[in-house]
C-alpha cells in the first residue's frame, strides 16, 4: 500500500481535512501507534492518536463513498504494524 492511499484512508476514516495528515503528522501517528502494545491498537486508539496529531479531526464527512476497500486497507495497515 502506498503512503498516499494510507493518507486517504485516514482522511476518510477520521474525517480529516484535505491535505492531512501531512508527512510530519503521519510520522508522529506511526511513532505513537508503535509505542502501544499490539493488543491495544484498536480503532479507538488510532482515533485518539490521529486526533492528537491532526488538526481538523472529524471536521469533514466523506458521505456516499464505498468504504469497503478502505476498511480492508485499514485492517492491512493494523496487521503490518503488528509485525
Number of separate strands: 0
What percentage of the residues does DSSP assign to strands (E)?
under 5%
Arithmetic mean pLDDT: 84
What is the oligomeric state here? Answer: single chain
Structural class: mainly alpha
- Main β-sheet description: none
Estimated radius of gyration:
12 Å
Q: Strand-and-helix sequence, N→C?
A: HHHH
Provide the low-confidence segments as ranges: none
Shape: globular
Number of domains: 1
Span between N and C termini?
15 Å
- What is the count of DSSP helices, taking H or I runs of 4+ residues? 4
Proportion of helical residues: 55-70%
What does this structure look like?
With 83 residues, this protein is mostly helical. It has one domain (3-82). Helices cover 61% and strands 0% of the residues. The protein is built from four helices and no strands. It has helices at 3-14, 23-35, 43-53, 68-82. Helix 2 packs across helix 3. It is globular and about 35 Å long. The mean pLDDT is 84.
Features:
83 residues, mainly alpha
What does this entry show, briefly?
With 83 residues, this protein is mostly helical.
Topology:
Blueprint: H1 3-14, H2 23-35, H3 43-53, H4 68-82
Helix pairs in contact: 1-4, 2-3
Amino acid at each position: 500500500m502506498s503512503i498516499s492511499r494510507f493518507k486517504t484512508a485516514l482522511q476518510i476514516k477520521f474525517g480529516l481535512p484535505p491535505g492531512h495528515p501531512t508527512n510530519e503528522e503521519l510520522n508522529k501517528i506511526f511513532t505513537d501507534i508503535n509505542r502501544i502494545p499490539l493488543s491495544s491498537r484498536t480503532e479507538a486508539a488510532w482515533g485518539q492518536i490521529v486526533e492528537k496529531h491532526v488538526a481538523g479531526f472529524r471536521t469533514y464527512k466523506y458521505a456516499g463513498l464505498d468504504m469497503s476497500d478502505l476498511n480492508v486497507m485499514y485492517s492491512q495497515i493494523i496487521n503490518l504494524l503488528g509485525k
